[in-house]
């Protein structure tokens, strides 16, 4: 059984997609990050970094419970555990390269683009331009790489495609436009291909029966951006 610590945001969405694709048995444990539940000691014992997603595998290596945090680490762990969606052995160097391209570039820059456009108390043109342009550059790298390719690595659907899908799913919010992939036709085609998979519909439905705080108030800002509040010790 996988205990899946979840909030309806892009990184948990990647893990939800893997779980649905693999047909693994899992239970969702909501973590309302807008209320600060990611900072509670019980969750910090699972992820010391206080972020979602995280999992507890009750049947980990040697039959012992295993905790795994960070979406890329979780995807790699589950791919190795199930021997699915990890590509061919010869693809491993490419798989690792593109997975970390997403986790160290596309993901963080997307998050910062969202922050400075939608959450920051001051709209700083330099910051907004900086992160939007970096997202466009990352999209362009993927768009060029996907020319003549169906998937990012090799000729098989893999965890890299799931990881990219998680953030591309929010591209309209990342770039604050209704047609964010219009300038990237191969990336757009790739996103449509992944989105057509039956497991994507199931992954999108994960957590729809749960209630999460939507209001952005002082509690939310302190929970989501504690480093902006020097008096808060986490």
TrEMBL record:
<dbReference type="InterPro" id="IPR010987">
    <property type="entry name" value="Glutathione-S-Trfase_C-like"/>
</dbReference>
<dbReference type="InterPro" id="IPR040079">
    <property type="entry name" value="Glutathione_S-Trfase"/>
</dbReference>
<dbReference type="Pfam" id="PF02798">
    <property type="entry name" value="GST_N"/>
</dbReference>
<dbReference type="InterPro" id="IPR036282">
    <property type="entry name" value="Glutathione-S-Trfase_C_sf"/>
</dbReference>
<dbReference type="InterPro" id="IPR004045">
    <property type="entry name" value="Glutathione_S-Trfase_N"/>
</dbReference>
<comment type="similarity">
    <text>Belongs to the GST superfamily.</text>
</comment>
<keyword id="KW-0808">Transferase</keyword>
<dbReference type="GO" id="GO:0016740">
    <property type="term" value="F:transferase activity"/>
</dbReference>
<dbReference type="InterPro" id="IPR036249">
    <property type="entry name" value="Thioredoxin-like_sf"/>
</dbReference>
<dbReference type="Pfam" id="PF00043">
    <property type="entry name" value="GST_C"/>
</dbReference>
<dbReference type="InterPro" id="IPR004046">
    <property type="entry name" value="GST_C"/>
</dbReference>
<feature type="domain" description="GST C-terminal">
    <location>
        <begin position="88"/>
        <end position="227"/>
    </location>
</feature>
<feature type="domain" description="GST N-terminal">
    <location>
        <begin position="1"/>
        <end position="86"/>
    </location>
</feature>
<protein>
    <submittedName>
        <fullName>Glutathione S-transferase</fullName>
    </submittedName>
</protein>
């Amino acid at each position: 059984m996988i205990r899946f610590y979840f909030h309806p945001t892009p990184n948990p969405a990647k893990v939800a997609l893997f779980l649905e694709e693999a047909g693994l048995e899992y239970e969702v444990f909501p973590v309302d990050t807008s209320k600060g539940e990611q900072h509670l000691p019980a969750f910090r014992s699972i992820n010391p970094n206080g972020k979602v997603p995280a999992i507890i595998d009750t049947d980990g290596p040697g039959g012992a419970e295993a905790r795994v945090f960070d979406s890329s680490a979780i995807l790699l762990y589950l791919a190795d555990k199930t021997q699915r969606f990890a590509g061919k052995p010869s693809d491993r160097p490419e798989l690792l390269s593109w997975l970390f391209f997403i986790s160290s570039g596309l993901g963080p820059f997307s998050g910062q683009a969202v922050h400075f456009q939608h959450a920051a108390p001051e709209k700083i043109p330099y910051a907004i331009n900086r992160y939007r342009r970096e997202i466009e550059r990352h999209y362009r790298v993927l768009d060029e790489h996907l020319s003549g390719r169906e998937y990012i690595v090799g000729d098989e659907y893999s965890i890299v495609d799931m990881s990219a899908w998680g953030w591309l799913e929010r591209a309209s919010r990342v770039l604050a436009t209704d047609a964010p992939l219009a300038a990237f036709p191969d990336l757009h085609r790739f996103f449509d291909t992944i989105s057509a998979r039956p497991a994507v519909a199931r992954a999108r439905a994960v957590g729809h029966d749960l209630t999460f705080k939507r209001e952005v108030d002082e509690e939310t800002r302190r929970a989501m951006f504690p480093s902006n509040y020097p008096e808060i010790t986490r």
